[in-house]
Design goal:
With 209 residues, this protein is an alpha/beta fold. It has 5 helices and 9 strands, in the order E-E-E-H-E-E-E-E-E-H-E-H-H-H.
């Protein structure tokens, strides 16, 4: 087990298990699968079953530090991994989609809120939004979904006002993270320009300017 201080966490990463929705799986099942491919244990910190039950994986029980996961290559030392059961159908195992039940979605929202209380500077992303990830996981754009969750959380009378303090803090955190990743890429001017253009597009899209 490897632990790092909570201050290292910059992202909460959403995954699907890529297991068929026609069959039930538990965190213990995923743990076994991960051990079979060489992991020490399940790679995620949490696993959300189809009925909304949240099961624990990598250790987050120790105040001030977290066990490093194995869920997002290159970002494991700075992220927390949440996986929901499902994401594919038995007839199409290579085609990922958002298979979350209403119970899973509700549990995911509650869990993310709890994690953001512990890791207030973290942003919410899907695995496919992480740098260098080539995957369909988690079957939806998690950052966009979480923006909508926060918009609905706005105080009465402000639901149509995009620039709430909470939303702006989240957006600035994401912009800083994306800008840092773009600059770290280095050397390729065209790639840097493209990355910064994407950041600008996301800002204007999300804050309505």
């Amino acid at each position: 087990m490897s632990y790092l201080p909570d201050s290292r966490v910059t992202a909460i990463v959403i995954h699907y298990s890529a297991t068929p929705i026609e069959k039930s799986y538990t965190a213990a099942d995923i743990d076994e699968m991960h051990r079979e491919i060489g992991f020490n244990e399940i790679g995620y910190h949490y696993f959300i079953r189809r009925d909304g039950t949240v099961e624990t994986g990598r250790d987050l029980s120790q105040p001030g530090r977290f066990e490093v996961g194995a869920h997002s290559q290159g970002e494991n030392s700075s992220s927390i991994g949440i996986c929901y059961e499902g994401g594919v159908r038995a007839a199409a195992p290579n085609t990922g989609f958002d298979s979350r039940t209403s119970e899973q979605t509700a549990a995911m929202i509650r869990l993310i809120r709890e994690l953001l209380s512990r890791f207030p500077g973290a942003i919410v992303r899907g695995h496919r939004e992480m740098p260098g990830a080539a995957t369909q996981c988690p079957g939806f754009t998690a950052s966009t979904w979480w923006d909508e969750v926060m918009r609905k959380d706005a105080p009465a009378g402000q639901a149509d006002t995009p620039l709430t303090e909470k939303l702006l803090r989240w957006r600035l955190a994401e912009v800083a993270d994306r800008a840092r990743n773009a600059l770290m890429a280095g050397g390729d001017e065209a790639a840097l320009i493209a990355a910064l253009a994407e950041i600008r597009a996301r800002i204007t899209d999300r804050i309505g300017r």
